[in-house]
Amino acid sequence: ILGSYHFPLADAFTRRVDLLKAKEETLKKYVAERPTPNVYTQVYNEIQQLVAVMMSPSRRVETVAALLCEFVTGDSEKDHQQAVSQTQLCRISLLRSAESLVKHYGTWYPDVVVPVVSAISQMSHGLSLMIGAARCHNTNRKVDVEPLLKSLVRFPVPDCCAAMELVDICTSTQTLDLIQETVRPKVKEGETPNNETFRLAKCSLQELRNVVSVRGRLDGEDDWAIICRILDCMVVAWQRQEQARAQKEQEESNYFINK
């Protein structure tokens, strides 16, 4: 009541307050159960072991690169089937690791486990696409490597905690560089390293775009440094491409003049 004015909902408000006061007497206080101190150490070590064993260049990148090379060249049916089988085993091991992380640590540390499992799932999906494409690749010797590489970097891995740095290799330029170095000697004729540079730059930009979308913002100088590094690589590749084109035109012009 304010002066002579009676608030229309005053009675309802008063009844609601009285009801809440009555319920207050019956409320129970619950304390959330906390994990033992060594659980975080265990999940950290398990992720580290996963990176060391399953996601190391010797186990993962070389396997994927070998599959890509067999996909491009198709030297022998035996090597082709072996590459497919190794990639399939790698994919199954990754899925088992993801299942173990969710089962043992998903309840305690979902902020750590969920992004890791998402990255593993994305990589597994990429490997599955590669396996399917390789199995269907019989007589056609032309291959577009771009979507296969993009399948490895499409899913973002936000750096929300220290443990996430361990799986950053899932979408890092290190993976792309290793694949590029392995595949480059066996790429189809007529494709230059500049083409690969542009292709990998597009993958990196797509990865960065997804990470920024998840964060909702640019992460200061780090993101801008990545953008500048990607653009520098693209500019250098473009300059080399233009120089090679100008040199070729000059050679053709001199050829006809001399002719």
UniProtKB/TrEMBL annotation:
Domain of life: Eukaryota
Organism in which the protein naturally occurs: Cuerna arida
Record flagged with keyword Lyase: no
Upper taxonomic lineage: Eukaryota, Metazoa, Ecdysozoa, Arthropoda, Hexapoda
Any one GO molecular function term: ATP binding
Protein name: Uncharacterized protein
GO cellular component entries: nucleus; preribosome, large subunit precursor
UniProt keyword Calcium, yes or no: no
Alphabetic keyword roster: ATP-binding, Nucleotide-binding
GO biological process: ribosomal large subunit assembly; ribosomal large subunit export from nucleus
